Amino acid sequence: MTLYTPHHYAQHDSALIFEIIKTYGFATVVTQGSDGPSISHLPLILDSFEGRQTLIGHCARANPQWKQFAQGQMLTAVFHGPQSYISPAWYEPEPDNVPTWNYATVHVRGTATIIDDAGGAYDLLQKTVRHFEADLQTGWTLPETPNRDLLNLINGIVAFRIEIQDIQAKFKLSQKQTATDRATVARELAKLGEERSKLAALMNRNST
Predict the structure, then answer these.
(1) Which of 62, 102, 130, 165 shows a CA-CA span of 20 to 30 A to 8?
(2) In angstroms, what is the C-alpha Rg of the chain?
């Protein structure tokens, strides 16, 4: 799968790309089977493995898509960053001004390896919990070792590691507009709540 990306929207800053993955870890995972595409929405996190960045995650064992992972099929994980409708009212008046949409998205392609031992699966769950609980600051953790109930739950999931083979990132952030109009768009977005403020901050960072 190829992400349509005009050159002025292509993002190559690895720090920004990995930040989107870390912050917006609930990914859309797509594989192509003999009967068409399979799609799941799964939490994925970056994890260093043997000196390189990978993605780790898990799905319900009842979800048949994991069997495609086990077969070594290429998958695409789509991370959806901040996004918003952009009103032409925020631009200097021009006859060709029309509404548009600003957004950041990252597509990661790779193959998955199933983590088929309970210890490895539990380690993955602990990393996942630590990652997402850190944002909430609740202090909640999993036990250091799983009890019987947790072991039963582990049997109901399939843990996996994705070897990253390609990353395509598209940050559409009003790059075709003037610097004045980009600044106005960012300023207006910042007034409209937390999510749009994140998009505004990304626009300001991308303009430097």
Answers:
(1) 165
(2) 20
Q: What is the mean pLDDT of each run of 10 residues along the chain (208 residues)?
A: 91 95 97 90 94 95 95 96 96 86 98 94 95 93 91 94 97 94 96 96 85
Query: Nearest Cα to 208, choosing from 3, 4, 55, 16?
Result: 16
- Triad 200, 203, 208: Cα angle to 5°: 135
Cα distance between residue 186 and residue 80, in whole Å: 19
pLDDT for position 68: 94
Residue among 158, 177, 62 nearest 113 (CA): 158
3 state SS of 181: helix
Alpha-carbon distance of 30 to 9, in angstroms, equals 23
Contacts of residue 24, Cβ cutoff 8 Å, sequence gap at least 6: 79, 80, 81, 82
Structural domains of the chain in order of their starting residue, each with its CATH number = 7-177 (2.30.110.10)
Amino acid 95: pLDDT: 78
Residue 191: both structure tokens together: 């007034």
Q: Is 91 exposed, middle or buried (0-12, 13-18, 19+ CB in 10 A)?
A: buried
Amino acid at 118: A
- Residue 86, beta-bridge partner list: 100
